[in-house]
Please model this.
Amino acid sequence: MNKLNKKSIIILTTIIVVIVMVVMGVILFSRKEINNEQKETPYINDNVNDIGVQQKYEEKLKPKSITASVPIFMYHFVRDDTGDYEYPENMVKPETLRAQLQYIKDNGYETIYKDDIGRLEYFNKPVWLTFDDGWEDFYLNAFPLFKEYNMKASYYVITDLIGTPGYVKLEQLKEMKESGLIDIQSHTVTHPRLATLNASEVYNELSESKKFLKENLEIESNVICYPYGSYDDNVISISKEVGYQYGLAMSGGVYHSNKHINVYQIPRIYANRSMSIDTFASYIKQSRVYVEW
Ligand SMILES: [Zn+2]
Model:
């Protein structure tokens, strides 16, 4: 082999080594980027039922865009006997709720809760069932159904009324929280019309109920459910200040991510006693998520 050939081989080998090193460097760097991005996402998996979501999350990055429609139902009581209650329409029969959960199961919809509304890219056909006021009959009549169907629900409690007649007890709340199926959040301390209060009263209602859930149940409540759907700009700004990330209204139909930009004004559908399964289904069928990765 002459001198020139030897030189060529050395140069060629050097070029190949440099190229390989550069390629490996690029691969390692991009992996590091992916890891960093995953760490920065504020998603905390604190629940066995979130494992599926967590797996999807670990496989994928943040989407380029997302367009979603989610039916969010608002319930109050779950009971047969309406007694002499002034608003019997607020009392959904347990058998009606069962038929609704069966419909959700049979048609492949997924119940969401907590702040899933902020990560809809991990769901295909999300439905959110929310229960206001913290009535004990939720624990007695609805919780067993959610366990049976292994489905999720959100439950909004008035913290001053916990343990009083007709309302849920602290031990029952602990049991529901432990199940991983029920998301317990704030519906204020005393259930006032927030838009009629002054700023310090609103602050008190929002922060003290949050504090109660933290101290007694170790729950970080990040969704505020406005009593009577009463809120205004002032209530929204105090909600943000106190640390809530989402606010639930009482009406407005199906949630559309393009239309309902302000997440402190999330609309809900009133699930009343006379709602037929066909009407329920007509809302459910509007659930959809389009994601561009
Ligand atoms: Zn209420």
User: Anything to note?
Assistant: Residues 132-133, 187, 191, 227 surround zinc ion (CB under 6 Å). The two ends are 55 Å apart (CA to CA). The longest helix spans residues 3-40. The chain has one domain: 59-292.
